[in-house]
Amino acid sequence: MRGAVPRLSLALLAAESGARLCAIIHYFIRGQLGWFGLTIACLVPGYAAQLLSILWFRADGHTPGCWLLTLHLLQLGLWKRYWDVSRAVSETGGTAGEVLAQLGDVCVLRLLEALLQTLPHLLLQAYFVVAVDPAGFIPGVSAGLSLLSLAWALVSYSHFTCLLKPGHLSPPAAVLLCLLLWRTGMLGTRVLALVLFARLYSFWVFAVAGLHWLLMSFWLVAQQTDIVAQPCRWRLFNCLLGAVYIFCYINVRPGPSRTRVAVFYTVSTRDVLCSTWM
Fold first, then answer.
1. Where is this chain's protein located in or outside the cell (predicted)?
2. Which of 219, 196, 217, 212 is nearest to 270 (CA)?
């Protein structure tokens, strides 16, 4: 199952990128330059993951050459990492510690890229389909693949954290499928609620999202998460994770998380019901 995860991740990443390129071409051909520019702008945050990937290559002792730098400039750095992991798994059976480390690197990088790049693209295309052109097939397909790819990035990250636990084997396909359905449903409802709210109340959606972000950030500070040691970086981490919590829950603390999950979904469900009622 370990070999199937990076291969499926690479396939979804390629499908999402292809659909995004089709959406860009679609807007350009139809003369919708505003949407064309916004869709391209969603690509820019993804370079944070590409830059981090280069730094990690250097930290692992691999001097980035022109070919590797070109791949990352074209935002294909994670494609290479997935390819390397898939090839390593096929050669070693996925039992070597180095293969697990490579899998962990690409899972974390893909999750970062999905949150910084895929999520804004998903929101943009979903708003276009709901509020501008409900018959827009290409933006709709792009939004659907972005949602699936983002959900799978969360699932593959959970899969990797499960492998890190002593004595834990790779989860079966049925477990990963249930996780994928859960993440897709949760993200889909959150995105749909925000898009519908934005359609009805325009820029007031930023006030609602900002209030939720502040609430989640203060909640994270109250939990005293120690994943980051430096005070300034610790505050920045909590602020960034608070923004992520507008859409989905990511466990960053060891130990049982039932209470934290219950609090998060209670607040999130209330927000969805309020947005739908309004």
1. Cell membrane; Membrane
2. 212
Handedness of CA 69, 73, 77, 80 (dihedral sign): negative
Query: Domain limits of the chain?
Result: 3-201, 203-277
Tens of pLDDT, residue by residue over 24-73, are 999 999 999 999 999 999 999 999 999 999 999 998 888 888 999 999 99
| Cβ contact 82:106 at 8 Å | yes
With a cut of 60, say whether residue 277 has pLDDT above it: no
Closest C-alpha to 234, from 249, 250, 252: 252
C-alpha closest to that of 107 among 8, 191, 183, 189: 8
Contact 217, 250 (CB under 8 A): no
Confirm if 70 and 102 have CB atoms less than 8 A apart. no
CB atoms within 10 A of CB 67: 8
**In 74-172, alpha helices (H):** 77-92, 97-113, 119-127, 137-164
Residues 6+ away with beta carbon under 8 Å from 121: 20, 39, 42, 142, 146
Could you give the 3-state DSSP secondary structure of residue 237? helix
Interhelix angle 119-127/137-164, rounded to 10 degrees, is 150
What are the φ and ψ backbone dihedral angles of 32, each rounded to 5 degrees? -90, 75
Is it the case that residue 14 has pLDDT exceeding 90? Answer: yes
* Secondary structure (DSSP) of 241-268: HHHHTTT-----SSS--HHHHHHHHHHH
State the amino acid at position 25 in one-letter form: I
Amino acid at 7: R
pLDDT digits (tens, 9 = 90+) for 61-111: 888 889 999 999 999 999 999 998 988 887 776 556 778 888 889 999 999
User: Six-digit token pair at 59?
Assistant: 């930290």
